[in-house]
Design brief:
single chain, alpha+beta, Nuclear Transport Factor 2, Chain: A, two-stranded antiparallel sheet, 4 strands
Length: 111
């Protein structure tokens, strides 16, 4: 019984290590994708934004307005207030389930 418990604990530790490594790889890819989104936003590059954003995009602003892909990209590219600087003070990614990752953070936006 003791040996089976030790084997089970060893397998659990191995699974957690593999999962952690996979999560780190995923988070690095997500960070790079978000960096590309920020660069495309600052550049006001419609083609890059359309390639980055999902057709199912719903972007909720702090004022409660919700944009879809078309209105969000139009607002970024055609607004009189273009983004000059987006500087994260905090940015974390949390895998929440298969195909779902939450990103939260704080950033300074200069327009």
């Amino acid at each position: 019984m003791k040996i089976n418990l030790l084997r089970l604990l060893a397998l659990l530790a191995l699974a957690l290590t593999v999962t952690h490594a996979a999560d780190e790889k995923l988070i690095a890819a997500l960070r790079a994708a978000d960096d590309e989104r920020v660069a495309a936003t600052k550049a006001g590059d419609l083609a890059r934004l359309n390639a980055i954003y999902s057709d199912q995009l719903h972007y909720a602003h702090s004022n409660g307005q919700v944009d879809n892909k078309a209105t969000q990209t139009e607002g970024v590219v055609n607004s009189a207030n273009l983004y000059e600087r987006i500087e994260y003070q905090e940015r974390t990614f949390l895998p929440a389930g298969p195909g779902i990752v939450l990103m939260k953070g704080r950033a300074i936006f200069t327009m």
